[in-house]
Q: What sequence folds into this?
């Protein structure tokens, strides 16, 4: 049975739908209000606040901390400056992705890593023989994700002296809240301007209250997982066990993926010091499959649905039910995350297709179901993200 | 020598912009001329009071055609329609009817008044869904002329007939009822709860000089149900930044397709030689040549002012003179210092992110209409309120709000005095009425903008101030809109076209007349 997160007293009071999901064993709100669209648009047009505490979090300290994370991640951590963050996958010896997460460098020999799955044992094994104090801080550290174009204004009002205007994308600030350390990272899972706030679990409700109170003047809404999933698909951000399978959980080799196959080739630094999977990745640099974005043709959806006298029926929420993708009748892959994007007014999907069909502009067909009958609609391959507003990476507009 | 354009569009409202964008998309060199310094016509957002943005005239979006959104790539150009998904009807006795996105909650709320109505409400929704589907087809076609024997018209009529027969018996009956009944009578076939009937019937009077008991008002009700957002009928939304954002998105799209847009360029007349339009002359005296000219203005301006009526057939001139553009609606925009509190449901909440309808009973609205029939503004008017800043916080400074109040009735002709001396009294009547339901309202008001039909006419030029550019009555629809024989966007002057809301399928921010006009123009060019 899922257990409450450190913010449960706050999230439960706001979760009018009582729609809870299980996120890593914690109760996480699916939607707070009847309509997840309000939460979705809060992030795209104002601000949303997500309880991200269920993430797994690890602290690494000690003279060899940098070596450990550099051995773990496919990206070159030696380039990561103090105060900087980076996003990276990590692989097994065969070069298949185990998990992905963000790494923050809090000090010279001090890093913090997030993971979707429990990773302590893997980290311990990778760090065997290294002088690192490795701690699982998943339960003691809470995480709040404040996302959306108004997030900076909300945060600035609470912390008037912090140089948020100059805090760049994937950098962090360390400050204090109620006398305890608070880390503010300019990161998120929405593809918009946003911050993640990391602090001791017992103080999290207090910060939540401050954010909600201040945010009420900026259109802030609590953000549930239903809206989050729509946002991350638009942002082209993949999700483990949905868009790819961790190599630790794969039942057959075909379920495993290299970083090149899930759109993370850019996060593999070939020339860096030894890292796990390096040799294997050199060998299979040419991916057999690739992660792409698909834009499904709405006129073709209309054409198919009009055959039964209906307008196109798409769920208001995202779908994680994978559907086959075809090229001229031949099966070439699957769409794994699908959503009708309210801001783009387009039916979009993240898909994995054979490399021969991964070129942007390629026309493929996605399976759709029209009144119980399987049918197909055309779709165009694009390179994600679908939505990439200037404020995501931009610095303050003054 | 001045540049000659393939097409000049007069008027930068949503239809003019749509026509401009479609013509530019087809490769024409296009110039759009707008008399004001900002685009949008009635689709405009303005910062009248510093820090507060008003959606000055129109205030919600629903009818904008999905094909136009796609064809013109409007999301890329800034179209962002935020959800507006509830309606609350506060009642003088402290009760209320709240209808929101949770259908069970809505069911319970209506059940408090009538369990029968709560069930009927779902069936009614189903029936109206069928009606919206039925009329969707008509929204996308040039209205066929039933008096013509031209094979093209006969074919179009045949297709339309087929479409209707395909709806099935029951839907045809419902449709005929909607075309002929009053909205209150139509709704009384479904419901018994007076405030529910009143609120629903209000959709049948918005923008028209009819009461809920006037025959024909049911059609206007249907017109407001035709809206479609992302394939969902009857969905209403609010454009980020106000409805002006729709105009900006259309203009940005038109420009990206190569159209030129000029503001502060009022047109004095359309030039024509030997029965063919050759360009326009601006009020400044500047002449601009063009292969064709499209007017998005109302028919009185298009036919009686921009060209010399002597050049037009007498029956058209008569029809246009008789075309009803009588305005009956007003608008009050308020800047508020904080959150307004409904006495029936105090505090902030989802009910403030939807519509608030002052429509406590059918008699209440009918009495409001009685006032108007005899040349008075309604002393206790029907008011359709939204709080744009609740939906888009960018509309007002943090913690402050804007309130948009659409008010009926405000007849164009007052029996006593003029709008210039009655305007503020009208504003007072609105604020007094609102204060009965929102006790803290008066303390919160920082600024008030009151608009009568005169102000609509003066500011954006729409004759009579009718929000649809002409009444949406049966006698002014389809092949009769705006005049028999001239309902297919053409005029007796070759190369002179119309594309405004006074053409089929009518008013509302749909862009549909603009799109259909562009299609007809392109057809003519390629024949």
A:
């Amino acid at each position: 049975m899922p257990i409450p997160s450190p913010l449960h007293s706050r999230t439960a009071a706001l979760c009018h739908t009582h729609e809870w999901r299980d996120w890593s064993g914690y109760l996480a709100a699916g939607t707070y209000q009847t309509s997840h669209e309000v939460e979705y648009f809060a992030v795209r047009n104002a601000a949303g606040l997500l309880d991200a505490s269920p993430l797994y979090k690890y602290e690494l300290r000690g003279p060899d901390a940098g070596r450990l994370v550099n051995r773990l991640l496919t990206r070159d951590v030696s380039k990561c400056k103090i105060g900087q963050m980076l996003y990276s996958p990590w692989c097994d010896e065969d070069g298949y992705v185990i998990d992905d997460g963000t790494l923050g460098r809090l000090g010279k020999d001090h890093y913090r890593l997030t993971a979707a799955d429990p990773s302590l044992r893997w980290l311990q094994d990778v760090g065997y023989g290294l002088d690192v104090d490795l701690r699982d801080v998943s339960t003691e550290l809470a995480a709040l994700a404040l996302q959306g174009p108004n997030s900076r204004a909300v945060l600035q009002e609470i912390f008037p002296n912090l140089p948020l205007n100059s805090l760049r994308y994937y950098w962090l600030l360390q400050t204090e809240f109620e006398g305890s350390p608070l880390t503010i990272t300019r990161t998120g899972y929405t593809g918009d301007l946003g911050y993640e706030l990391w602090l001791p679990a017992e103080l999290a409700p207090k910060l939540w209250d401050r954010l909600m109170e201040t945010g009420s003047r900026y259109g802030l809404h609590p953000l549930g997982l239903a809206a989050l999933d729509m946002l991350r698909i638009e942002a082209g951000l993949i999700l483990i066990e949905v868009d790819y399978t961790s190599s630790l959980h794969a039942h057959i080799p075909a379920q495993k993926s290299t970083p090149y196959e899930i759109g993370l080739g850019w996060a593999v630094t070939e020339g860096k010091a030894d890292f796990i999977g390096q040799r294997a990745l050199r060998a299979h640099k040419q991916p057999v499959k690739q992660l792409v974005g698909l834009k499904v043709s709405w006129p073709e959806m209309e054409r198919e649905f009009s055959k039964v006298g209906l307008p196109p029926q798409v769920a208001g929420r995202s779908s994680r039910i994978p559907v086959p993708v075809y090229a001229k009748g031949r099966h070439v892959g699957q769409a794994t995350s699908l959503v009708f994007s309210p801001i783009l007014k387009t039916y979009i999907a993240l898909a994995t297709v054979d490399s021969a069909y991964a070129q942007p502009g390629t026309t493929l067909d996605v399976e759709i179901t029209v009144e119980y009958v399987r049918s197909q609609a055309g779709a165009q391959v694009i390179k994600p993200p679908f939505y990439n507003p200037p404020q995501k990476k931009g610095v303050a507009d003054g | 020598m001045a540049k000659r354009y393939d097409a000049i569009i007069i008027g930068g409202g949503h239809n003019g912009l749509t026509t401009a964008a479609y013509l530019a998309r087809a490769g024409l060199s296009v110039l759009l001329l707008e008399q004001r310094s900002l685009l949008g016509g009635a689709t405009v957002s303005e910062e009248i009071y510093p820090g507060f943005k008003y959606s000055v005239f129109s205030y919600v979006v629903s009818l904008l055609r999905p094909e136009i959104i796609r064809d013109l790539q409007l999301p890329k150009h800034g179209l962002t329609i935020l959800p507006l998904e509830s309606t609350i009807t506060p009642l003088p006795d402290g009760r209320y009817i709240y209808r929101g996105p949770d259908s069970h909650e809505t069911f319970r709320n209506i059940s408090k008044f009538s369990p029968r109505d709560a069930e009927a409400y779902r069936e009614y929704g189903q029936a109206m869904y069928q009606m919206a589907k039925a009329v969707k087809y008509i929204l996308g076609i040039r209205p066929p002329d039933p008096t013509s024997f031209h094979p093209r018209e006969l074919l179009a009529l045949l297709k339309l007939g087929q479409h209707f027969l395909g709806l099935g018996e029951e839907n045809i009956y419902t449709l005929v009822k909607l075309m002929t009944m009053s909205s209150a009578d139509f709704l009384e076939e479904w419901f018994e709860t007076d405030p529910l009937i009143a609120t629903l019937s209000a959709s049948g009077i918005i923008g028209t000089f009819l009461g809920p008991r006037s025959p024909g008002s049911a059609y206007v009700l249907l017109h407001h149900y035709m809206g479609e957002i992302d394939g969902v009928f009857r969905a209403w939304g609010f454009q980020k930044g106000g409805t002006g954002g729709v105009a900006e998105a259309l203009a940005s799209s038109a420009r990206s397709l190569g159209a030129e847009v000029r503001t502060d360029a009022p047109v004095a007349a359309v030039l024509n030689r030997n029965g063919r339009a050759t360009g326009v002359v601006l009020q400044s005296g500047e002449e601009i040549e063009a292969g064709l000219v499209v007017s998005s203005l109302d028919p009185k301006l298009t036919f009686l002012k921009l060209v010399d009526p002597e050049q037009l057939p007498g029956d058209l001139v008569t029809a246009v003179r008789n075309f009803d553009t009588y305005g009956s609606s007003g608008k009050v925009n308020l800047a508020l210092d904080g959150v307004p509190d409904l006495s029936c449901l105090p505090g902030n909440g989802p009910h403030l992110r939807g519509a608030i309808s002052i429509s406590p009973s059918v008699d209440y609205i009918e009495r409001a209409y009685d006032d108007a029939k005899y040349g008075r503004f309604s002393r206790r008017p029907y008011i359709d309120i939204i709080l744009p800043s609740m939906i888009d916080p960018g509309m007002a400074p943090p913690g402050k709000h804007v309130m948009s109040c659409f008010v009926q009735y405000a007849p164009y002709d007052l029996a006593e005095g003029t709008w210039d001396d009655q305007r503020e009294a009208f504003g007072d009547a609105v604020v007094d009425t609102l204060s009965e339901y929102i006790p803290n309202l008066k303390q919160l008001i920082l600024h008030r903008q009151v608009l009568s039909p005169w102000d609509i006419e003066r500011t954006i030029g729409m004759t009579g101030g009718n929000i649809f550019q002409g009444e949406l009555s049966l006698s002014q629809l389809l092949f009769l809109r705006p005049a028999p024989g001239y309902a297919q966007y053409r005029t007796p002057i070759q190369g002179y076209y119309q594309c405004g809301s006074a053409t089929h399928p009518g008013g509302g921010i749909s862009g549909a007349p603009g799109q259909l006009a562009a299609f007809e123009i392109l057809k003519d060019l390629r024949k």
